[in-house]
Amino acid sequence: MSVHFDSGRWNKIKVDARSWWAGELDRPLLNYTLTGYASDRQAPSIRHERYASCYEPEISPDQIADQWDYNLSTQRYVGDAFPAIWPDFGPGVLAAFSGCELENGEKSVWFHAAAQKEIADIQVRFEEDSYWFRRVRDILAAAQQRFRGAVQVSMTDMGGTLDVAASFRGSEALLFDLYDHPAEVKRVTREVHKAWWQAFDALNAVLRPANPGFTSWAPIFAEESFYMLQCDFAYMIGPEMFDEFVKPELAASCRKLKHAFYHLDGIGQLPHLESILAIPELVGIQWIPGDGQKGPGEWADVYQRIRDAGKLVQVFGGPAVVDKLHKELGSLKGFVFIAEMQREHELTARENLRKHGAT
Questions:
Q1: Which helix (DSSP H) or strand (DSSP E) does residue 86 occupy?
Q2: Is 281 exposed, middle or buried (0-12, 13-18, 19+ CB in 10 A)?
Q3: Per-residue pLDDT at 359
């Protein structure tokens, strides 16, 4: 293993994260990962794949874990960053754990049912013996065996409940079902919710207790249960339908987690923000402006709304974004910024860390 991180630094990550979650850290978390360093180990036998689902079945979980180890050996972690790997099988892979087919694309992974069914004929059940669940489970197990707690192995991207339902039904058909068959949509939502938590618990049984803590595709560290919940389907519906079809399940999942975040993706979800913020058990919001929109440093009003509601805030952005928002908002207490930078920018990163007390 060639990861440049030791137990002393892990202890600091845990102490600062514990304080941040409790609202006691007077500075933001600044998670800066530096990339592009020469590795001190031999290159792996397989090439890196953006999506772990793209590795052919004959490529073993141990080989994939070795490839991840090599990638980590080319990185350095400053501020509040920590070594983590994310087994990415596409957003909403729960669909593939429950009977949908998985299709790798050039820029994403897609899930669809083998045959189109009416909403009344759809039944969603978690299939522990499905190929894709076994594949994810075995890769996570190999990673844990490889890293033995020195690296945070993240949960895969399970997806949002209605996003998974849309994989079975189709997004357009599901939109019509909200009007025509609301009771059936709610039934399927309950089935997806149950399957989601069965899969989540089964994978966490593999991840724990070797993992230092919990994280998701957004590398925020937590010692107790954490997940980045989502419903990208909500972009296409209004606030009344959100409150009827999305919010009850979202609130139920928030109650099951110690640290529940919501992935607010795109301006089409902003009409739902106040409703989401009203969920008592929701701890924080990740705001993603979306393609073609202003950058992450241009939304001080949105961040202020989130903070005024007593929630934490996650932003993808480095030193320039941090400095801009600090100037506009003053204190950045309760924020976590996540950025990946080339090693040539290490001095800039470290200066920014010192400026905001993250050293």
A1: none
A2: middle
A3: 85
Are 196 and 94 in contact by the 8 Å Cβ rule? The answer is yes
Q: Tell me, yes or no, whether 239 and 302 share the same domain.
A: yes
Matching residue, tokens 């190929």: 131
DSSP 137-156: HHHHHHHHHHHTTSSEEPPP
| Residue numbers of the domain that contains 348 | 28-37+223-359
The answer to whether position 13 is within a domain reads no
Contact between residue 344 and residue 315 where contact means Cβ atoms under 8 Å apart? no
Dig out the tokens for 255 from the structure.
């109650």
pLDDT of residue 1: 60
Please check whether residues 228 and 311 belong to one and the same domain: yes
Concatenating the DSSP letter of every residue in 86-113 gives: -----TTTHHHHTTPEEEE-SS-EEEE-
- Give the whole-angstrom CA distance, residue 175 versus residue 173: 5
Gyration radius of the chain over CA positions: 20
User: How far does CA 90 lie from the centroid of its chain?
Assistant: 11
Whether residues 293 and 311 share a domain: the answer is yes
Closest CA to 213 of 152, 143, 142: 152
Residues 281 and 257 in one domain: yes
Which residues partner with 259 through β-bridges? 226
- DSSP classification of residue 243: I
Domain boundary among 164, 179, 211: 211
Q: What pTM does this model have? A: 0.95
Residue 230 lies in a domain: yes
- Note whether 252 and 115 are same-domain residues: no
Q: In order along the chain (359 residues), what is the average pLDDT of each group of 10 residues?
A: 88 98 97 96 92 96 97 97 96 97 91 94 98 98 95 97 98 98 98 98 94 95 97 97 98 98 96 98 96 95 98 98 97 97 97 95
CATH number at residue 97: 3.20.20.210
Q: How many domains does the chain have?
A: 2
